[in-house]
Amino acid sequence: MTATARKLDGAATARAIREELRDEAAALARDGRRPGLGVLLVGDDPASAVYVKSKTRACDELGLFHETHHLPATAATAEVLARVEEYNRRRDVHGILVQLPLPSQVDTEKVLRAVDPAKDVDGFHPENVGLLVQKRPRFVACTPAGIMELLRREGVELAGRRAVVVGRSDIVGKPMALLLMHADATVTVCHSRTRDLAAVTREADVLVAAIGRAGLIRGEHVKPGAVVVDVGMNRVEDPAAARDLVEPERLVDLEKKGYVLTGDVHAPSVAPVAGALTPVPGGVGPLTIALLMKNTVRAAAEA
Ligand code: NDP
Fold this sequence. Notes:
This protein is an alpha/beta fold. It has twelve helices and eleven strands.
């Protein structure tokens, strides 16, 4: 029998986190501080609309207030800024979520800088990024924060171990590397200019793939027994590529939705090598949403 990696069930961990938040959210509501999330969605990107829906649904489940301003794809930076400033002023909005990516004419950096750092539940404001760098975290980007919760609850040891993060984005790769370093792992960050990626990733006891390239990390990239976290969320429309990437039973999605959702890890070749692996879907995605809820409840508690 071939060995197969233990499934790191992000969806179950996310449910547990949300359950833990339920009482705190209710207590705040009784105290007249019902946690509230203000969402800004600009344009008509279908994936962004799906993400916003999952986040507002999570608010509903927990009894959080939420409101979404949906601006047209042609919106100017000034219009987006005006909405952010409105949310900054509102007492019923404790957390602000600007769904990325914004259309190209909008100055994303300026918009993220305009968010009140005390309401910056996504952890993208330079002040919150700086606090994370200094190991005094306030709001930390939800995806890497969710991965840390998963690793902690699954008992994955980090101190003294080799961690490799593939990807260096502000949203995932960089904060992930900082959090792993602060947990005393020895961290290497890889990117598109890294030479001989497999030689580096094979050193990892804990490997995090945040690349945005379906199935890039294959069995030969993974050290036997490693813990592999797959952040990628890729829509694969090509049937031949999909057949290579996902189990046959998931191919029905091709007909139903026109694509299959797959990670950056090629599960068929990695699962027999890794010790543990997060699935896609049902791994990192739900954790991201759970941590957004956690940050929003915390913002309300500290308001
Ligand atoms: P970005 O595109 O911002 O960053 C991708 C990173 O991967 C870059 O640093 C890039 O390097 C690196 N990269 C690209 N190609 C290669 C390669 N061939 N070898 C090594 N490194 C490479 O993406 P994000 O960080 O925003 O997202 C990464 C993935 O995670 C995406 O699939 C995204 O959809 C998903 N995601 C999932 C979330 C969830 O909740 N599950 C949340 C956020 C993102 P360079 O810097 O040199 O360009």
